[in-house]
Each structure stands twice: as structure tokens, then as C-alpha cells.
Write a sequence for this structure.
């Protein structure tokens, strides 16, 4: 069987739209507030980018290490497309337990996809990190809202990563049936 290679697109419409919206907003600020304000905003944005670059590099480096350290067969078996509900539960537990910000969590989710996890597992992982993360609950929510509020919030949010993962699997299967290709294109 000849394996069909996916064609790499040289133009991304989503990037073009973001660039156009950004340029439009920059022009509006320039016309409305002048050169000084525009340069001040650009300077702050550059400072933000420089501050985020080491974190982004660390997140990508962690994801690269994960792809080298974890055996592909194990990942595919535990959280692959045939893992069923167990794969979603494992992803939910991992997402709830892992600390870190989006600059480490999203590259990790991408690394799991590269290693053979299915798209439902990635969605369950990210959803659990967002909704059930113990780090946020311990540091921010418990001191401000108390244990009763946090307990109810977690109890209500508990099924959402599983639901999101199941919906993502259904959508991926639909896409595969209609267009062919792999599950996350």
C-alpha cells in the first residue's frame, strides 16, 4: 500500500486574517492616537514577546523530550484511538494533575498527538487542565471562595472533559469519513 503524503500548504488563511486585523487595529490606533501611542503599544508588545519567548521555548523543549522519552506504542495503546473511555479518563487525570501554564500544556498536548494519542484525548487533557487543575484550585480558588464553592465547581465540571473528548472523537471520525486523512487535520 502506498502511503499518501499530506501536502504542505504554503499559505494559511487564518494567519492572513490575523495579520490583516492586527494591521487594521494598528492603523486605527495610529489615526486616533498618533505616533507616540502607537510606538508605546508596539514597545509593550515587543516586551511581552521577549518575556514569553523563553517560556514558549521551554514548553516546546518539554514536548520534544516527551516525544523522545515515552514509547509510541505505549502512548498509542493507553490513549490512542482504540483506548476508549479509559484513554479519556487517563487524559482527564493527567490534565487535572499537571501544573503549568498554556505555554507548556498546549505543546504537551501536541506531543501526545504526535505520539499516537487521538484528538479526543488531547481535548479531554486540555479541558481537564482548564477546568479541574488542582494548582489553580489550591492557590486561587480555595483562599478566596472556600472549600464548598471549589468542591461544587469541581463536581459540576468533572464530566466536561469526558464530554468534550467524546465530542472531539465524533467530530474527528466525521471529518475522516468525509475527507479522509488522519484524525487531527
Amino acid at each position: 500500500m502506498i502511503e499518501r503524503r499530506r501536502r504542505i500548504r504554503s499559505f494559511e488563511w487564518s494567519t492572513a486574517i490575523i495579520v490583516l486585523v492586527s494591521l487594521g487595529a494598528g492603523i486605527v490606533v495610529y489615526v486616533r492616537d498618533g505616533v507616540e501611542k502607537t510606538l508605546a503599544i508596539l514597545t509593550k508588545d515587543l516586551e511581552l514577546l521577549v518575556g514569553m519567548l523563553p517560556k514558549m521555548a521551554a514548553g516546546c523543549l518539554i514536548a520534544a523530550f516527551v516525544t523522545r522519552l515515552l514509547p509510541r506504542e505505549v502512548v498509542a495503546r493507553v490513549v490512542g484511538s482504540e483506548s476508549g473511555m479509559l484513554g479519556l479518563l487517563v487524559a482527564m487525570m493527567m490534565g487535572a494533575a499537571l501544573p503549568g501554564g498554556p505555554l507548556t500544556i498546549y505543546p504537551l498536548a501536541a506531543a501526545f498527538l504526535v505520539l499516537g494519542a487521538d484528538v479526543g484525548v488531547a481535548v479531554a487533557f486540555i479541558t481537564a487542565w482548564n477546568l479541574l487543575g488542582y494548582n489553580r484550585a489550591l492557590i486561587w480558588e480555595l483562599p478566596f471562595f472556600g472549600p464548598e464553592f471549589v468542591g461544587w465547581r469541581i463536581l459540576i465540571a468533572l464530566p466536561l472533559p469526558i464530554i468534550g473528548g467524546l465530542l472531539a472523537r465524533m467530530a474527528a471520525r466525521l471529518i475522516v469519513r468525509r475527507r479522509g486523512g488522519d484524525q487531527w487535520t
Summary: The chain has two domains: 13-69, 71-185. The chain has a mean pLDDT of 88. Residues 71-185 form one domain.
